[in-house]
Structures are given as structure tokens and as C-alpha cells.
């Protein structure tokens, strides 16, 4: 009973978490979960992904972003928030892939992210990638 209550509280609070951006207007944008409101494992994966990209540990960042995406797919939190966070995680993974010159996979992540939940930040990353690839 206690575990179910904790899980319910964690999932409800996922709805209230917000994302912050780490970057300036000219670079790719990385999204992080600002508050400690998401389940700990998800928050750690999500934020560690962005931190590793920022630290130029791109291969590790890609693996961690992939883990965050998998955790979100298993989440039974509010559908709209899960979609938004999945979109952000895909965008973060796309940045890590672009930085390792895995352009096809990176641009694919950006397109998928925009289709899931279009946001200004994700659209910026897609536009930036297209510009870099001269598409």
C-alpha cells in the first residue's frame, strides 16, 4: 500500500515538473528536469544525459539518453507530460549523436521528437541540425 502511494505521488508530481534549457540561442539546446519531482531514476538519467552532452562525453550521453527514453516508455504518468519529456530526451540524444557525427541518427531523433511533442526548444534543435547539414 505504501509503495503504491509513493508511486502515485511520484507520477502525479511528474506532471508538475518543468524543463530548463542549458545553452544559448546559437547552440543546440539541452533540456533538464528542474525540480526533484520526477521519479529519482528518471530524473537522474534525464539530467545525466544533458550533463554528459555538456561535458562532451557524447557516447555515454547517448546511452544514458536511451535509458531515459526507455524509462519514459514504461512510465504510466500523465500522458501529455510523458510525451513532452520523451520528446526532450530524444532531442538531447539527438544532440549527442550530432556531436559524434552520427548525423542520420541525430536528425532522426530530432524529427521523432518534433512529431511526439513539438516545442520551441526541440524545433530549434531540428532547425540547427538542418542548418549544420545544409538541408
TrEMBL record:
Signal peptide range in chain numbering: 1-23
Alphabetical UniProt keywords: Signal
Domain of life where this protein originates: Bacteria
Keyword Signal among record annotations: yes
Record-linked SUPFAM superfamilies: TPR-like
Species of origin: Pseudoalteromonas haloplanktis
UniProt name for this protein: Orphan protein
Record carries keyword Signal: yes
InterPro entries from the UniProt entry: TPR-like_helical_dom_sf
